[in-house]
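help with this:

***
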Amino acid sequence: MDVNVDVSGILIQTKRLVLRPWRKTDLSDFFAYASQPGVGEMAGWPHHRSKRTTRKILGAFLKAKTSLAIVNRQENKVIGSLGMYKSWANEDYRYKHLREKEIGFVLSRDYWGLGLTPEAVSAMIDYCFAALDIEALTCGHFLENTQSKRVIEKCGFPYIMECEHYATQLKKHFTAARYIIIRSV
C-alpha cells in the first residue's frame, strides 16, 4: 500500500553527502546537472534546455515534497536528486499489503563512478526502514541504463522482473527491470 511521505523535514547526512529538501536557491545547481545530455534521458525525461524548464520542475519538487536534493558536502553543491514515488508493487498481489515507496535517483554526469549514488540510496533505505516504518522499497531502470543497474544491485535490491515502460516525457517505450527490497524484521 502506498505511504504518504513528506520529505520537507528529512535531513540525512553521509560521509560525502547531504540529502535534504530542495530550496529555491538550488536552481543553478539543478540546471547544471539537469541540462547535461543523457542524464535525464536515463531516468525518462529530456535534459533541460533552459533555466525556465528547471525553475518549473524545481517548483513542482517544492510543492510535491517527494524529492530530496543530493548535496556534495565538500563543495556544498546540489549534484542530483533522490525521490520517493508511488510504487509499481502497489498493484502486485505479492506486495500490495506492504507499506511501500518507489525510489528514483539522478546524479550529475560529473560525479558518476565515484560511488555517490549507492551512498545516497543506501542512506535513504536505512532512513525509510528505521524512521518512516516503510516495509518495502522498489526501484527500476531501463535495461540499457547499466549504471543504475549497478547502483541497485550494490544496494541489495533483488531483481523481480522485466516490464514495458512508456516514458511519457520522452514519448518512447523502454524495457525496464524492476526490483524490490523488503525490510527484515
